[in-house]
C-alpha cells in the first residue's frame, strides 16, 4: 500500500520550504507597494520557476536562476507596476515604486531571485543529504 505524500518527511520539509519562499516573496512585494498584484506576480513566478520548485525525489541537481530569470522578474515587476500605477499609494511607497521603475526594479527583483536561489540551494542540499543517507 502506498503512503500519502504528507506521510513523507521529505515532502513535509519541502512544503515548509515552499511556504517560507512564498512568504519571503510576498513580504518583498508588499514592502515595495505591490500588494494589489502580489498574487498574480507569485503565480507567474511559480509558472516560470516551476521545474526548480518541484520536489526533487530523484536528487537531480536544481537549476540556478540565470540572467534570463533575473530579466524575467524585472519585467514582471515592471508590468505589474504599470498595470496598477493608477492606484493611490502613500507618498513613500509611490516614490519607491517610481524609483524602481527608473532603475528597472533592480532591487526587488534581486531580492526575489535571492529567495529562489536560497530555496533551490536548500532543496539541493537536502536532496544530497537524503541521497548520502
Please, how many domains?
Answer: 1
User: Which word captures the global form?
Assistant: elongated
Order of helices and strands: HHHHHH
Structural class: mainly alpha
Average pLDDT rating: 82
- Strand content of the residues, in percent? under 5%
| Distance N to C terminus | 24 Å
Largest sheet: none
Instruction: Give me the Rg, rounded.
Output: 17 Å
Low-confidence stretches: 55-61
Q: How many alpha or pi helices?
A: 6
Helix content: over 70%
Number of β-strand runs: 0
What does this structure look like?
The chain has 133 residues and is mainly α. It has one domain. It has six helices and no strands. The protein has helices at residues 9-31, 38-48, 50-53, 67-84, 91-102, 106-132. The longest helix has 27 residues, at 106-132. It starts with 8 loop residues before the first helix and ends with a helix.
Amino acid at each position: 500500500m502506498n503512503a500519502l505524500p504528507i506521510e513523507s518527511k521529505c515532502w513535509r520539509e519541502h512544503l515548509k520550504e515552499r511556504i517560507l519562499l512564498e512568504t519571503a516573496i510576498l513580504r518583498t512585494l508588499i514592502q515595495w507597494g505591490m500588494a494589489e498584484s502580489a498574487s498574480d506576480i507569485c503565480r507567474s513566478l511559480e509558472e516560470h520557476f516551476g521545474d526548480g520548485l518541484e520536489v526533487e525525489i530523484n536528487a537531480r541537481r536544481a537549476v540556478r536562476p540565470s540572467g534570463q530569470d533575473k530579466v524575467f522578474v524585472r519585467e514582471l515587476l515592471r508590468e505589474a507596476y504599470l498595470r496598477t500605477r493608477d492606484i493611490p499609494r502613500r507618498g513613500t511607497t509611490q516614490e519607491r515604486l517610481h524609483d524602481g521603475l527608473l532603475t528597472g526594479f533592480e532591487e526587488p527583483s534581486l531580492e526575489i531571485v535571492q529567495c529562489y536561489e536560497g530555496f533551490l540551494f536548500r532543496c539541493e542540499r537536502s536532496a544530497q543529504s537524503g541521497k548520502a543517507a
